[in-house]
Each structure stands twice: as C-alpha cells, then as structure tokens.
Amino acid sequence: ESSYRRNTAIDVIRGILFRLLVSRPSLYQYIRPYYEIQKGLLFADSSLEPLWDIFEKMIRDTGLESIYCVLDGLDECELTSLKILLSKLVSIFPKHSVDSQRPKTHLKLLCISREYAECILEKLRTYPRIKLDPDSDEEVHEDLEQYISVKVDELSAEKDYSEEVRSLVKTKLIQRAGGTFLWVGFAVKELLDRASTEVEEALDSFPTGLEGLYSRMLLNVLERRRHLVALILRWVVIATRPLTVKELSAVTGVEGVRVEERERAIRDYISFCGPLLTVVNNEVHLIHASAKDYLTRDEEDTEPILEFFRIDEGEAHATAARVLFDTIQSSFTSEVVQEVLDSTLPCWELAESILRKLDRVNPLTSYAVKEWAKHAR
Fold first, then answer.
1. How far apart are CA 289 and CA 274, in angstroms?
2. How many CB atoms lie within 10 A of CB 286?
3. What is the 3-state secondary structure (H, E, C) of the chain?
4. What is the C-alpha to C-alpha distance for residues 254 and 262, in angstroms, rounded to an integer?
5. Pairwise pLDDT comparison (324 vs 289), residue with the higher score
6. Using CA atoms in the order 254, 255, 258, 260, what is the torsion angle rounded to 10 degrees?
7. Residue 150 near residue 188 (C-beta atoms within 8 A)
8. For 125-157, b where at least 16 C-beta lie within 10 A, e where not — what string?
9. Where residue 2 falls among pLDDT bands split at 50, 70, 90?
10. For 258-271, how does the pLDDT look when each residue is reduced to its tens digit (9 = 90+)?
11. Is it true that the peptide bond before 134 is cis, omega within 30 degrees of 0?
C-alpha cells in the first residue's frame, strides 16, 4: 500500500511479510497453500491469524540466517490492535527455553516507541530496554547539533546571513531546541520569512516545546477559516486510515466546486492548517503523532480559540459515523440496487465494481462502506 502510516496489527504483519518475500523469494512456499484456498481474502483485514501463522513459519525456516526487523512508532498503533500485536510478538520470544518446543526463530526484533500506551510497558517490561532519553542524551544532542548545523547552513545560503547572524541562529537553536528535531524544523521554516534584522526577535518569541508551537499555529488561523480547519483536522485525526485528498474534499463540502478545480481547492484548504498537515502520495497526514496527542488532549483549554480546535474523540467518531451512514444511504440508489440484483458477478468482484462506480460520484463512498462501523464502535 502507498501510505507510510498503517496503524493496525494486520497492516504491520502485511508489511513485514511483504519485505520478507521481497528479500527472500523462497519464502513464497509458506504463503502459497493459504492463498490457493483463500485467494485475495487472505489479505483482508479479518485475516490476522492465517497471516500470523505464515509469518511464524517464515521466521522459523531452517534455511534462513538472522532477520533484523525494526518496528518504529509502535505507540501509534491503534490501541485494541496494539494489544493483540504485542501478545503475538511476545509469543515468539519466550523468556525460558522450556516455554516452547517450536523450532528456533531467526528474528531479531527492535521496537521503537514512546512509553505509552501503558500496555507496551506491561507486555515488554521483561525484555531488554534502552531509554533514548536520558540514557542516550549525549548521542541525541550530538545528532541534533549536526542537524541544526546543516539547516543553518541551508538557511544562511538562502538568506545570505552574515557570519555573526549565522552564529547567532545556530546558538539560539541549540539552546532552545529541547532535544526536538521537529521543533528545529518549524523554527527554520519560520526564519525563511524573516529578514536578518528580525532573526533574534523571532527566535526569542518562538514558543518552547511542541505544544506551544501547535497552539501558536492554531491561534494564527484566520477567523473565517477556523471552522473549516477544525473540520479537516477532526477528520484527519479520527480517520481509521489516511484519507486521500479526494475523500477529504467530500467531507469538507468542496465537492460543490467544479471537478477540474476540486483538488486545487482542497489543497488550499489543507494549507490553511499550516504545518500541522502534510500530503504524502495523495494522502493527508498529521505532521507528527504529537500533533494528535495535542489535539485530543483531555484537559479543557482556557483559551477559547484553542478549546474550539480541541477534539473530543467520542463525539467526533459519532459524528463521522452519521456522516458516513448518510453517504451510504444517498449513494445506493434504486438503480444501484437493481444492478446488484441483476449481476452474475461473484459477490466480492461485484462489491468492488459497484464501489468504484460510486466513488466517481462521491469519493467518500468506499471509505464509508468499509469504515463506518469502526467509527460507530
């Protein structure tokens, strides 16, 4: 799949299997018997167990050397799915050899995560662990300084800074970065719009910490755009998978614009959200997991504008479920129903064919049909 962010256990396993098959084609022997029975359904969202069986057989293949696997951002996995995934992973690495009579695995696994959700620490507490902060503070600081040096060089070349200004920018960034690469990126982007004489004042006024940055970004949204920006952010945050530009255009009402102007219009709308969002492979993503944490924080905000943008996830999912169900009702007209009744295609092929046609009318239909129940739950 095109997205770099697929956050369920089944997505993780499909991704690992794909990488294994690309690097070791001989492992197709383990997937072929399952595929001959289930065909395309083997890769459906409900097929975790057979895919896990295939995965275990692959990593216990006696002809394999060590397999090194890095799972980054484990904390970004959807919570219910994360618990299942952790249980599966732990089962591969019993703490005592008597715990398992199965062939030895060749898998060497590294999981990178923040310390929450709590189930991550609960499940993995008995395994070797390195705390990057503060255990590796010195190495992180060195990497951050190198990153800052590169960004300041690029900035200095573009803005034609004097050596004095260049040195000032580097020093200020090192002092105020707080160990956060993302903060440096935002600060450098801000300086691109400032004259050399405004650099020091800009850096001193730049909020410390990512939450302060996110607050400032939202406070800078023009009043006439706040409702639209809040709507876009709400859908991007709660979507069960990344929404495409076209899907987002449907839920924000931009579908009323002439067809040839829709994509440009929604991209303008996305730009109103500032650096909080990014478009990758035509899919809309939050810039970082910390942005979701900030937008869905439990504490009410004393600043009315920031409180307006804060997302109540339960309420947002309920609203999404209603919108998606309305989309389904309006899409499946009597003509579509008759086509279903008259068709001789196998059920799966018919469903996909119908959805492709409906998506041309309303780009949200496929997402609505496949995902509305998750929002309702």
1. 16
2. 20
3. CCCCCCCCHHHHHHHHHHHHHHHCHHHHHHHHHHHHHHHHHHHCCCCHHHHHHHHHHHHCCCCCCCEEEEEECHHHCCHHHHHHHHHHHHHHCCCCHHHCCCCCCCEEEEEECCCCCHHHHHHHCCCCCCCHHHHCHHHHHHHHHHHHHHHHHHHHHHHCCCHHHHHHHHHHHHHHCCCCHHHHHHHHHHHCCCCHHHHHHHHHHCCCCHHHHHHHHHHCCCHHHHHHHHHHHHHHHHCCCCEEHHHHHHHCCHHHCCHHHHHHHHHHHHHCCHHHEEEECCEEEECCHHHHHHHCCCCCCCCHHHHHHCCCHHHHHHHHHHHHHHHHHHHCCHHHHHHHHHCCCCHHHHHHHHHHHHHHHCCCHHHHHHHHHHHHC
4. 6
5. 324
6. 90
7. no
8. eeeeeeeeeeeeeeebeeebeebbeebbeebbe
9. very low
10. 656 777 888 888 99
11. yes
Q: Report the amino acid identity of residue 214.
A: Y
Please state at what angle helix 163-176 crosses helix 137-159, rounded to 10 degrees: 150
- Report the alpha-carbon distance of residue 199 to residue 165 in Å, rounded: 8
Burial class (CB in 10 A: 0-12, 13-18, 19+), 214: buried
**Rounded to whole angstroms, how far apart are CA atoms 60 and 326?**
48
The arithmetic mean of pLDDT across residues 48-70, rounded, is: 89
Euclidean distance between CA atoms 270 and 323, whole angstroms: 20
Contact 276, 233 (CB under 8 A): yes
For 61-106, the pLDDT digits (tens) are 888 888 899 998 888 888 888 899 999 998 888 766 554 566 678 8
Beta-carbon count within 10 A of 302 CB:
7
72 pairs with which residues across the strands? 112
- Is residue 279 within 8 Å of residue 270, measured between CB atoms? yes
Distance CA 313, CA 298 (A): 10
pTM of the entire predicted model: 0.74
Tokens of 244: 């495409």
Token pair of 224 as six digits = 């006439």
Name the phi and psi angles at 70, rounded to 5.
-115, 120
Q: Residue 205 has which token pair?
A: 């006024």
Q: How many residues does the chain have?
A: 377
Residue 99 has phi, psi (to 5 degrees) of -70, -15
